[in-house]
Amino acid sequence: MNKISPKSIQLFVAGALALTGFRDLFWLPFYFVYSKDTVLIVSSILTGIALVLGISILRGFERAVHWAIVYLALSVGLALAIMFFSLSHTPPPRPPNFAWKTVGSIITPLTLLVLLLWSRSKYFQDDHAA
């Protein structure tokens, strides 16, 4: 039976980060030309950092794993803050749809964060020491 190694988990997360970053950078020219929405432009640039982190992890830089954990933790924290802010500031007659749309943007970075933290846990350190 093949065991999952920390490196394979990190490579999976690196691919997911690189894909996410590439997708947002791919749409960036559209946002500049047609949308001109500053929020979309800034969020695409910030999400584009994930491409650099993903490629760095794929290249084998150990510090990139640390920075990916920081990046993903900040992403989850910011998404939670946006969700709670929109829930608390939505007028009562209108349903808080925006807050529940944010839940989807929390699940992916949270899953990747848990995977990266799991790959650096004692579970793998004890397994290789035996």
Plain-language structure description:
This protein is mainly alpha-helical and 130 residues long. The protein has one domain. It has five helices and no strands. Helix 1 (6-35) runs antiparallel to helix 2 (38-59), helix 1 (6-35) runs antiparallel to helix 4 and helix 2 packs antiparallel against helix 3. The longest helix has 30 residues, at 6-35. The chain is globular. It starts with 5 loop residues before the first helix and ends with a helix.
Summarize the structure.
By secondary structure, this protein is an all-alpha fold.
Point out poorly predicted stretches.
none
Report helical residue fraction.
Answer: over 70%
The total count of helices amounts to 5
Given the helix and strand composition, which structural class is it? mainly alpha
Run of helices and strands: HHHHH
Give the terminus-to-terminus CA distance. 17 Å
Shape: globular
Number of domains: 1
Tell me how many strands there are: 0
Whole-number mean pLDDT = 84
From the alpha-carbon coordinates, what is the Rg to the nearest angstrom? 18 Å
Percent of residues in β-strands: under 5%
Q: What composes the largest sheet?
A: none
Tag the structure with descriptive keywords:
130 residues; mainly alpha; 85% helix; 0% strand
Describe the secondary-structure layout.
Elements: H1 6-35, H2 38-59, H3 62-88, H4 97-119, H5 122-129
Helix pairs in contact: 1-2, 1-4, 2-3, 3-4
